[in-house]
UniProtKB/TrEMBL annotation:
One of its GO terms (molecular function) is DNA-binding transcription factor activity. It comes from Lentzea guizhouensis. May be an activator protein for the gylABX operon. This is Glycerol operon regulatory protein. Keywords: DNA-binding, Glycerol metabolism, Transcription, Transcription regulation. Residues 10-71 form the HTH iclR-type domain.
């Protein structure tokens, strides 16, 4: 919830952002009452702002009266540089990676204590996954998330280690154990998960560097098992990540 938006003096922009921020992966559809509660706004204020946002196309009202994010917000969202530049550069490498593995391939960036998925390729032979383009999942329970967490500041790592939620029985929730894993990620150059996000699914991921120093994203593959193919998958990921990073560096 946004919080503090109901206090006198909160700007219209702050209240509007609070309303839009009420939507997330767990709440893609909300009633007016739910929007009011999650944005910490009086119902009358929420009604007025939601009506304006709906007229502008930022929100859309469904047949049963719920509200969803509108096409206008989607059109604006895809203009964000992290979406357009990175996804455009990475696209051919992701397609080559998918063609060579037939596994679910995805690319993600860090968004606070979550991993935000920018692109995903999969097919009928790929293992089903919970990640979708635009979805946000826990850093500590995903391969791409562990990569991004391993290459972030100590302050953010400390914050993440203090709030480890269990997603499956195999999710790492012991701070000391996860911290040791993150150290290995920096040494080995890749991260793995074993049924930590979804039962029956394992993943391996590598960082994407720009100018060989800045980690701008992570590239990952989801498969049923890593017992036999981990070295091959790591190698394929690293080749693709190197190509993406080199292309990004060439663009300045």
């Amino acid at each position: 919830m946004a919080g503090n938006t109901s206090v006198p003096g909160a700007s219209v922009v702050a209240r509007t952002i609070a309303l839009l921020s009420a939507f997330d992966e767990a709440h893609p559809r909300l009633t007016l009452t739910e929007l009011s509660r999650r944005a910490d706004l009086p119902l009358t204020t929420a009604h007025r702002l939601v009506s304006e946002l709906t007229r502008a196309g930022a929100l859309s009202k469904t047949a049963n009266g719920d509200y969803v994010v509108g096409q206008r917000l989607w059109q604006l969202g895809v203009l964000a540089p992290v979406q357009t530049d990175l996804t455009r550069v990475a696209s051919p490498f992701l397609h080559d990676l998918y063609a060579g593995t037939l596994a679910t391939v995805h690319m993600a960036v860090r968004d606070g204590l979550k991993v935000l998925y920018l692109d995903r390729l999969s097919g009928q032979r790929s293992v089903p996954v919970v990640s979708e383009i635009g979805s946000r999942l826990p850093l500590h329970a995903t391969g791409v998330g562990k990569v991004l967490l391993a290459h972030t500041s100590e302050a953010l790592q400390h914050k993440a280690l203090a709030s480890l939620e269990r997603v499956t029985p195999y999710t790492i929730t012991q701070p000391a154990l996860l911290k040791a894993q993150l150290e290995r990620v920096r040494v080995d150059g890749y991260a793995t998960t074993y049924e930590e996000m979804t039962l029956g699914q394992c993943s391996v991921a590598v960082p994407i560097f720009r100018d060989r120093t800045e980690v701008v994203a992570a590239l990952g593959i989801v498969v049923p098992s890593l017992k036999r193919d981990k070295p091959r998958l790591v190698s394929a990921l690293q080749v693709a990540a190197h190509g993406i990073g080199r292309s990004l560096s060439g663009r300045g």
